[in-house]
């Protein structure tokens, strides 16, 4: 039979079905809407997210269902357990015989709660040096150049620029010395500079992988799940973590962006190592040695790592923030570039204000993400009305993420106060119990606040109506920012 015969038969079949196409399309749309609604109802813990996806699949037939299957279904947890054998939740690194206990009584409950969330001990005997971005960059270069056994680095953005190229040179030199180097860059963050630094690392012989990277259409469901962690571990005994990406903007004079990072020594470095090893085995299947090699006592800081993400670590960061806010008795200070928290965090801050806790929040006056900044101002309008102190810091853009409670507890790392960091990103933060360290950070914040502009309730009342509407409409996008 020739092609003409089949075309004829095909055309006849379509002609027979033509009157029924509207009914077939309606049946498919109805089936998809019902199926997705059932899936959303059973798998989404956030009622607002569930309502948003349900509305989308019914109001935008077929297209809404396709978007849900691409972006709304979390497939990470299942795959992570397949690759790690379920060990992602266990403490397979260095552990002390007796877990440290905070000296401040009202923070001991917080420590127990975070310990149960993370399945990790609060480690004693750590030393933390707080560094700005240029200091961190130089300290990381020095550490790589002095490495003798291993260098493990994970970052969201690794620029192919004046900041990234010298680090590539140092990593390549370490490989030639026989150092075990592993570099993990987020699949989206790798393209913040073009051409990507990934290829420069490959050409120089540095083992590098991209986290959740693929151009294949069937990999699109992972496009919204990013690795936002910034961790480096050298010789399994020295660590770096905080909010700093590897970008030239930090090194310009004057700087375009500022940040806060920590250089770590002590047992908590083993928890950074564990987090990196879990990400690495997830990405490429290679199992790394996760035993801590440094001394048990270096300083006086009690610290614990908090890995959070849309996998086995889901909700750990948000619950930690809620517990920290609830434990405050005197003062809460928050510095973040993006402040668009969910209703539970907003309510907990309001409760803290009502019980007499001083709440101070510092965000940049000019953000690099305008819609997030507008949404932040809408959310903060209500907190300022309740009594929170809001400060807008002047340029350069401050990318730091830090929180202190009662001059005893400190949290810093990669996580922001927005839906992306709280639900979608893989983040790493460090909680520290230390009067000395927290006081040092509070003094830094005092200087920061002196340079900032305070927003009073009347500033929001006097704001142009079109600006208030713009802010409110931007805040409607809170679940997606």
From TrEMBL:
Lipid bilayer topology: Multi-pass membrane protein
PLD phosphodiesterase domain segment(s): 223-250, 399-421
Matching Pfam families: PLDc_2, PLDc_N
Record key words, sorted: Cell membrane, Membrane, Transmembrane, Transmembrane helix
Entry superkingdom: Bacteria
Localization in the cell: Cell membrane
Transmembrane domains' residue ranges: 20-38, 50-71
InterPro entries per record: CLS_N, PLD-like_dom, PLipase_D/transphosphatidylase
SUPFAM superfamilies: Phospholipase D/nuclease
Protein name, per record: Cardiolipin synthase
């Amino acid at each position: 039979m020739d092609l003409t015969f089949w075309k004829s038969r095909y055309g006849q079949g379509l002609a027979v079905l033509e009157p029924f196409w509207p009914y077939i399309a309606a049946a498919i749309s109805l089936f998809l809407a019902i199926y997705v609604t059932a899936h959303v109802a059973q798998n989404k813990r956030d009622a607002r997210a569930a309502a948003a996806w349900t509305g989308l699949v019914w109001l935008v037939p077929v297209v809404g269902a396709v978007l849900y299957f691409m972006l709304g279904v979390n497939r990470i947890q299942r795959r992570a357990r397949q690759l790690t054998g379920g060990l992602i939740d266990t403490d397979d690194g260095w552990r002390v015989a007796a877990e440290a206990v905070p000296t401040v009584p009202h923070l001991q409950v917080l420590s127990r709660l975070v310990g149960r969330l993370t399945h990790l001990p609060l480690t004693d005997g750590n030393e933390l040096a707080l560094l700005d971005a240029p200091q961190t960059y130089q300290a990381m270069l020095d550490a790589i150049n002095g490495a003798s056994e291993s260098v493990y680095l994970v970052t969201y953005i690794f620029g192919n620029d004046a900041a990234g190229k010298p680090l590539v040179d140092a990593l390549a030199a370490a490989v030639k010395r026989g150092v075990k180097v592993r570099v993990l860059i987020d699949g989206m963050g790798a393209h913040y500079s073009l051409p990507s630094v990934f290829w420069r690392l490959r050409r120089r012989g540095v083992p590098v992988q991209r986290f959740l990277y693929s151009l294949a259409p069937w990999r699109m469901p992972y496009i919204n799940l990013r690795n936002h962690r910034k961790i480096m571990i050298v010789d399994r005994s020295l660590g770096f973590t905080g909010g700093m990406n590897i970008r030239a903007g930090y090194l310009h004079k004057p700087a375009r962006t500022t940040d806060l990072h920590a250089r770590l020594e002590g047992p908590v470095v083993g928890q950074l190592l564990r987090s990196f090893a879990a990400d690495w085995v997830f990405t490429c299947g290679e199992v790394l040695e996760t035993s801590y090699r440094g001394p048990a006592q270096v300083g006086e800081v009690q610290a614990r790592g908090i890995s959070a993400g849309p996998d086995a670590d889901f909700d750990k960061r948000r619950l930690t923030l809620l517990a920290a806010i609830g434990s405050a008795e005197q003062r809460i200070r928050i510095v973040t570039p993006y402040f668009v928290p969910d209703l539970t965090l907003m309510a907990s801050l309001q409760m803290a204000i009502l019980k007499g806790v001083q709440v101070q929040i510092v965000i940049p006056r000019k953000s690099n993400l305008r819609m997030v900044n507008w949404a932040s101002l809408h959310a903060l309008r209500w907190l300022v009305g309740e009594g929170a102190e809001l400060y807008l810091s002047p340029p350069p853009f401050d990318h730091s993420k830090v929180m202190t409670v009662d001059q005893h507890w400190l949290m810093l790392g990669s996580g922001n106060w927005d839906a992306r960091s709280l639900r979608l990103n893989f983040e790493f933060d460090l909680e520290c119990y230390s009067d000395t360290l927290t006081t040092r950070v509070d003094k830094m914040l005092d200087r920061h606040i002196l340079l900032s502009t305070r927003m009073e309730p009347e500033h929001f009342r006097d704001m142009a109506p079109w600006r208030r509407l713009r802010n409110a409409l931007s805040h409607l996008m809170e679940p997606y920012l």
